[in-house]
Amino acid sequence: MEKFNAIIDATIQALEEMKASGVTHVEVSPATLAALGQAPVVVGAVPLPQPAVIRSSASSVSLVAETAAATTYAETSELARIESRTKACVLCRELSRCRHSVVFGVGNPRAELMFIGEAPGADEDAQGEPFVGRAGQLLTKIIEAMGCRREDVYISNVLKCRPPQNRTPLPDEVTNCLPYLLSQIELIQPKVIVALGATALRALLDVQLGITKMRGNWYTFRDIPIMPTFHPAYLLRNPAAKREVWTDMKAVLKKLGRTPPAERGSQS
Q1: 10, 12, 51, 226: which is deepest, by most CB within 10 A?
Q2: CA distance 134 to 265
Q3: Structural domain boundaries of the chain?
């Protein structure tokens, strides 16, 4: 019984630490779900007639603890360490002096899909989370239209600090902040990256072509497919471009092996 309680306590502690680090959900294998669906064991004064059931319940908790520790927890802990270093960074003197928050990233640390933008805006700087302003609300709608939830994907920016007046990031600022983004990509290992706007695209691919010419085409960064598309802030100024972005997102879903929502209805 003491061992059982120790497992429970360790599981709760691991999940609480993950939640404090920004984890929004934990992936659980089908085997774990099946085990958790079995009838619970009630431990009382009466001797248990079927010790095998106890082993099954204990193994269920062990599976939960093992899944949490061996999958999401490791990535989350390392992301938290990188975020701590990011918050202490003062390489960009102007940005470090005027920032209110370091906006690191948010979402599933084991996401298949990662969105990368340019830099935080005023709302993001105030709240410490990427894409929470008007452009962020539009991005959330795009993600939901894809049949996903915001917490299913991972969202970040090239810069972790807001440039004054939301100006375009300077080349040396991108150079200073890029290692943090590369560490995020290395840990998360997404199956697809969506580069939102020219700054994100140029930071990853070191190209000088405009986003209009490059969007809708596949590129590769460290063996990860990249789909460039318009930044949501651009869509707020040019709503007609939403159709092109949706075309790009359907291509992303197909790259992930998923059927775009609009096509699911036509197949049913």
Answers
A1: 226
A2: 30
A3: 2-36+49-76, 92-259
Phi then psi for residue 106, to 5 deg, are -155, 150
Of 191, 196, 189, 228, the closest CA to residue 120 belongs to 196
Class of domain 92-259 (CATH, top level)? alpha beta
Per-residue pLDDT of 160-190, as tens digits, reads 999 999 999 999 999 999 999 999 999 999 9
Please tell me the distance from the alpha carbon of residue 137 to that of residue 131, in angstroms, as a whole number.
7
Residue range 139-154, pLDDT digits in tens: 999 999 999 999 999 9
CA-to-CA distance for 68 and 74, rounded, in angstroms?
9
Instruction: Please say whether the beta carbons of 2 and 42 come within 8 A.
Output: no
| Per-residue tokens: 201 | 């695209």
What gap in Å lies between CA 79 and CA 107, rounded to an integer? 11
- The structure tokens 């290992």 sit at 189
